[in-house]
Amino acid sequence: MSAVQFSIDRDSVCMGDDVASHRLTLDVRPHRTLGSLLAQALRKYRLASVGGEVSWIAEVTYGGYRRDERGLVHPPVSHALALLHVPYPEGETTIIPLSNYFLAMSLREMAERAGAAEVILNFHYLSEGARWRPEEFIARYK
Fold first, then answer.
1. pTM, entire model
2. Which residue among 65, 70, 87, 130 sits deepest, i.e. has the most Cβ atoms within 10 Å of its Cβ?
């Protein structure tokens, strides 16, 4: 296997952001890991900038919606890779790894796991994401 195709995509953050597709498809070396693909995406793929603190969840998905033998519909398979917190108005983005197992997985293994299905590194936008100290959270939701 000389190269495998992976797509990178992200959610739109507002109506004006829906004008063009955010999907990018790459041919990548199969021995690389999902973590290295995520690291490359964080360096080169533009996440939308918005006012206020937000977070993004990076996840890998594959397979489409499918119906099983009982007629139940199942969504694509999805594995969370990392949580990205973007402070506002300034500060450094922080990354919390959520699955070292999948981050260390080779792209070849992920492609084999997906079979013929497209594999996508998705960034899901969370419109909120300000960090709170535990006592702030407890006081608000007691």
1. 0.82
2. 87
Residue 12: closest CA among 90, 135, 125: 125
Asked if residues 98 and 78 have their Cβ atoms less than 8 Å apart, the reply is no
Closest CA to 38 of 50, 26, 49: 26
| Four-point Cα dihedral 117, 123, 125, 130, nearest 10 | 140
Q: What is the mean pLDDT of residues 58-87?
A: 89
What is the pLDDT averaged over residues 88-114? Answer: 89
C-alpha distances in Å from residue 89, one per residue of 51, 54, 93, 137, 142: 7, 11, 11, 22, 29
Q: Contact at 8 Å (CB) between 18 and 131?
A: no
